[in-house]
């Protein structure tokens, strides 16, 4: 009786170890069907936006109309492994759609999970997806810049938009490619633009209804160069006397050729400009003088032309006229006296 009691604890220990090993292998090995048995203690996780990798003859066919990414439900008793496989940066499995033996047409094709650990069970959601297979065709298209007018600051407008490269190649099914109306390089994610800029943008192809088509574009990005025009208007240039007036000069007459110029700049500034005073320094002008004068405008404003041609005519004062008249008379008298002598 004593020996039976002494053996009992050892028997319990052996049985406990046996069941522990059994549970471990049950959670970490697969069954005959290729998937591990789901136990009561299994954990679940969902891997979202898993890319669908498609196998097909890319030189001959073009595929479209299928989901590019799916969700995969994962089950395992190993939490560390489950977390690893549900993370897009650390997972080892992938979702595959094999079209190797398919011809032209539209099909519902099953998806397969490959490369997963044996202790993880996976089910794709959805398990099947539709796909259309067409003969591959190529053609070149001009890229059309599409600049949203709402991106510009008040008064500023699009002057010109170009793309680099200006032409791209499209690949698609024969039927899809025939529907392409335009290839668009759109810019709409900016605001308060008041100067020229360049931006690299993705391309998309649309049909005549403006609907986006499922095509491949090479390259799929282009550089858009935008030239912006500022608010502008024409104003008159008014010559005004500046500096000192030499003795004997009463005032000046200004004759300006083409007295109208065009100014360009921020709307808040040019709205305040109704005309431009052209200051002409007369300190050393005693005789009629013609020349080009620079039109001075506020900062951030451009003017065209930048210079204007002005003729400056001094008008003699009355006293200066009298003195000159007296001098003329004296000279005349002097000449008469010389003749008598």
Automatic annotation (TrEMBL):
Protein name, per record: Uncharacterized protein
Sequence ranges of Basic and acidic residues compositional bias: 317-341
Renumbered residue ranges of the record's region Disordered: 312-341
């Amino acid at each position: 009786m004593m020996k039976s009691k002494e053996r009992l604890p050892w028997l319990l220990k052996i049985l406990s170890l046996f069941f522990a090993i059994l549970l471990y292998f049950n959670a970490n090995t697969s069954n005959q069907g290729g998937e591990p048995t789901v136990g009561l203690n299994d954990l679940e996780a969902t891997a979202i936006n898993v890319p669908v990798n498609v196998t097909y003859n890319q030189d001959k066919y073009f595929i479209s109309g299928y989901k590019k990414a799916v969700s995969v439900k994962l089950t395992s008793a190993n939490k560390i492994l489950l977390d690893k496989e549900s993370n897009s940066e650390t997972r080892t499995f992938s979702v595959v759609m094999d079209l190797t033996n398919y011809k032209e047409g539209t099909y519902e094709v099953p998806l397969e999970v490959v490369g997963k650990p044996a202790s993880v069970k996976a089910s794709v959601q959805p398990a099947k997806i539709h796909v259309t297979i067409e003969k591959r065709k190529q053609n070149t298209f001009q890229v059309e810049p599409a600049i949203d007018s709402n991106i510009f600051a008040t008064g500023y407008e699009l002057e010109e938009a170009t793309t680099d490269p200006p032409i791209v190649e499209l690949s698609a099914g024969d039927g899809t490619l025939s529907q392409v109306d335009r290839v668009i390089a759109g810019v709409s994610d900016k605001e308060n633009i008041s100067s020229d800029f360049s931006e690299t943008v993705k391309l998309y192809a649309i049909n005549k209804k403006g609907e986006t088509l499922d095509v491949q574009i090479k390259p799929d990005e282009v550089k858009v160069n935008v030239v912006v025009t500022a608010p502008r208007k024409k104003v008159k240039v008014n010559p005004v006397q500046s500096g000192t007036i030499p003795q004997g000069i009463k005032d000046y007459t200004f004759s300006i050729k083409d007295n109208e110029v065009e100014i360009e700049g921020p709307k808040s500034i040019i709205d305040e400009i109704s005309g431009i005073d052209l200051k002409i320094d007369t300190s050393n002008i005693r005789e009629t003088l013609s020349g080009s004068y620079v039109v001075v405008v506020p900062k951030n404003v451009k003017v065209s032309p930048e210079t204007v041609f002005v003729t400056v005519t001094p008008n003699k004062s009355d006293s200066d006229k009298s003195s000159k008249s007296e001098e003329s008379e004296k000279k005349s008298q002097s000449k008469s006296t010389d003749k008598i002598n």
